Amino acid sequence: MFAPAYLDHNATSPLRPAVLEAMLPYFGQHFGNASSRHEYGRAARRAIDEARQRVAFAVGANPTEVIFTSGGSEANNLFIKGAAAQLKAGTIAISAIEHPCVREPAKSLKRQGWQVREIAVDADCRLASADFLSAMAEKPQLVSIMLANNETGAVQDIASLAAMAAQATQGRAWFHSDAVQALGKIPLDFRSLNAAGVHALTLSAHKLGGPKGSGALIVDKRVDLLPLIAGGGHERGLRSGTENVPAIVGFGLACAEAVVQLQESTQRIKQLRGELERGLLGQGASIFALAAERLPNTVYFSLPGLDGETLVAKLDRAGFAVASGAACSSANPEPSHVLLAMGVEPAQARGAVRVSLGPETTGAELAGFLQALAATQSNLQSLTSLVG
After folding, report:
1. pTM, 2 dp
2. Active site residue: 101, 125, 255, 328, which one?
3. Average pLDDT of the residues in 286-297
């Protein structure tokens, strides 16, 4: 079977072998419902408790602060809709580069009388300080700023932003951060973030070698949330429903492995990224957010006059799986809202291609990718010249 070199880890990551092995027993002999009182149920409950401790340890949280969900989208919705439901309608402030699973629930609050304040970013995908302070002066009740952008990889100084938000609102705003792309790629410490004024973090398993269908909201217990799903009172009453034990077990082990390997993996991937970027610049590419602190694995670029979707399709046939933007928005033909917020012209934004590396990525794969890209660029430019 033809298997392109996989360079799209920000979309999803391959399941770690040890994670799959750990999950398998919970599809078979350990099939119990974690709410049951017999040994089958107790075995499932012990597995969930261990996974909760592993997830908590990976981000410096207390296990009681971990609420398991079906993924990052549900966790983001749980915070935004759940917190808003317990507050008088006011203002929610989000950055202009948020993932759709933050943007859309925020917009949905307008039907309940809320105002949505989008905070601008600069040309390198960093929050514009003046506009952030202006937004905080409007005394929002809710703030949601992603920790690392899924397209550009740009990392925000969430601790400083939360501290400024707390000062501007006299500590009355609940501050949330979507940390889905950060987990497993850079260190996370909820305790220090919480001390600075961050009240909740969103995580997802499948971005770091865990299974799809498992995520978590790390939430300060002072935050009052109305659950999205009511029922038997699972997850501190915040997420009812029989737990997905295999996926939760896999999430826990993926976190444990990622923490152990983080430093070594980060150094190696950052070196590979540097080699890739030098090759791209040599081919005339523009790299977005190049001056910002970024995730070590992410490169988002465009080549003059070339369409991103066309490039992605050509590279796939050449044996390299990359993306033209966020995987969950790939059906949308419009230019990336992230790039437009950065001031990138729509024509250039349509040419954007994202390469995101993983622990298994090799230098040989990237060398092959650069060769294929150069050949594809030459071929497409020749076709354009002939048509012209």
Report:
1. 0.94
2. 328
3. 98
